[in-house]
Amino acid sequence: MKIVKTVEEWNEIYSTIKNKKIGFVPTMGGLHKGHLSLVKKSQEQNDITVVSVYLNPTQFNDKKDLATYPANFDDDVRLLEQNNADYLFAPTYSVIYPDDYRYKVSENDLSRILCGASRPGHFDGVLTVVMKLLNIIRPENAYFGEKDFQQYKLLDGMVKAFFMNVNIIPCPIVREENGLAISSRNRKLSETGLKTAPKLHEVLTDKSSLEEKKAELEKAGFKIDYLTEQDGRLYAAVFLEDVRLIDNVRCE
Ligand code: PAF
After folding, report:
1. Which of 32, 35, 122, 201 is catalytic?
2. Whose Cα sits closest to atom 9 in ligand 1?
3. Cα 35 from Cα 186, distance rounded (Å)
């Protein structure tokens, strides 16, 4: 696997790639089975798979959350090599933001609710960085996990709104056997937290009402940010031991 750090280096490589389909998996590092399922899907559907690892500061409204994001670059490189990714794009802030974030992409409907309501500016940061990454890498297909379903919908809307020549491919949530949606943030939970966390998915999928679900989660020790139904999906964001966990399921 070749590690690429600048746009110029990638442009050089890109100019040698002829008639090959490029699949792209953007990440912020802290790679886990969920990310690897995106890499696998990209490898099945493309000739070349590029993964990016860039911990994007502009999507963190909470600086402590950014500073404690559980990612280790060497572990990520090792995992990607073991899983036969072709290229790792690992830029710095000045490579991604030569404008120092003077220019941004924003959406003013879906991005304002759910995670957007409690994390002001979060989706501006996500949309902006993903547009930049897509413009740099120029893939045919880009892969995103459905755990961040709102993010997937916003990105899909963005590429359509801006006539971008890329397919946004949603991939199913990867769960632990106990139902917990796999996330880098799970690593921040204590052993006790890890035992409680699967309750979120259990409660989301049981037959109770929204109010009953909220009460059940609070009883188990979760602090609820939101738990709501939107367009046939049940979305939740909760705090457990100060760690923000999100999940969503299709309503039956
Ligand atoms: O889902 C993520 O990991 C990030 O939001 C993304 C899409 C890599 C943009 O920084």
Report:
1. 35
2. 126
3. 14
Compute, in angstroms, the gap from residue 146 CA to the centroid of ligand 1: 12
Local structure of 97: helix, strand or coil: coil
Task: Pull the structure tokens for residue 118.
Answer: 């409690």
d(CA 173, CA 13): 32
Q: Establish whether residue 56 lines the binding site of ligand 1, counting it when its CB lies within 6 angstroms of any ligand atom.
A: yes
Q: What whole-number distance in Å separates Cα of residue 228 and Cα of residue 234?
A: 6
What pLDDT digit, counting tens, does each position of 97-122 carry?
999 999 999 999 999 999 999 999 99
Ligand 1 center to 222 CA (angstroms): 25
* Residue 28: CB atoms within 10 Å: 19
35 in active site: yes
CB neighbours of residue 12 within 10 Å: 11
d(CA 31, CA 29): 5
Q: Is the pTM of this model over 0.85?
A: yes
- The contacts of residue 145 (CB under 8 Å, 6+ apart) are 34, 35, 37, 38, 152, 170, 171, 172, 173, 174
